[in-house]
UniProtKB/TrEMBL annotation:
Residue ranges constituting the NAD-dependent epimerase/dehydratase domain according to the UniProt record: 3-218
Family, as annotated: Belongs to the NAD(P)-dependent epimerase/dehydratase family.
The organism's place on the tree of life at top rank: Bacteria
Record-linked PANTHER family: DTDP-D-GLUCOSE 4,6-DEHYDRATASE-RELATED
UniProt cross-references to InterPro entries, sorted A to Z: Epimerase_deHydtase, NAD(P)-bd_dom_sf
TM region positions: none
Species of origin: Acetobacter orientalis
Functional pathway: Bacterial outer membrane biogenesis; LPS O-antigen biosynthesis
The protein, known as: NAD-dependent epimerase/dehydratase domain-containing protein
Amino acid sequence: MKILLTGGTGFIGYHLQRKLVALGWEVDALVRPTSDCNRLDPVVTPRVWNGHSGSLCDLLKQSNPDIVFHLATHFLARHDMDDIPALVRSNIEFPSLVLEAMRVAGCSRFINTSTAWVHVGPLANEATSFYAATKQAFDQILRFYQTAYQFQATTLTLCDTYGKADWRGKVLSLLISAALSGQKLEMSPGEQCLDLVHVDDVSEGFIQAARLLQNGVTGTFSITSGRLISLKNLAQKVEQATRRKLMIDWGGRPYRAGEIMLPWQGGVPLPGWTPMIDLDHGIKGLLS
């Protein structure tokens, strides 16, 4: 199997590429000149894109992948006016150019990455941020390519992810670091819930989606732990695992505007996939 991966130097891509290589799959990574290619596995081939649409078509022809995995994203929980161009370029323009380059190169299998943040509101179809709105917009563009050009595409909807080598500054990493260092934290009241899935399980989800896609099975599927945990209870788990008392001022800061208290739990489960790493074992793995 030949894979072209966008977002290969990101957190999930970092772990996914290594699992693909371990399976014996051939992996190319679509990167920019400024990308940190030290995050790529040594056997992954970097395909450096200079930003011109014509060269992107050439790169797709050179790579000639069986499937394109699209993980690249630009995430911001909140935005201001200056952030909008980068969000649109990264989350709408870039993946749209990839689809068009695939069409020109004769590639038609695509696995997209979406977010549970696009599923809020009474009908669970509203975006909770401008970032999520850009993901929704690209979903519509992808559907166009499926209808107009018979692309075979699957979208995986992700919730919160965690695991080793996580440089993103997510809340679980923050809690573990504070427990080990004794740092004091000011946090919200802590009643909001998280749906945490280990990055190894997420990677297995992408691999299963690729196998299904090979057999003609497409759709929009959810990657979820199936178990919500409040921020306060997550802090308790970190205390138990580290045997350290967290110094947290609960309510020291307000909830963020538009805070999601209960993550979306709808959607169709990915056929043949089940999370294997529960949160207790996942936290212990981070500490080891």
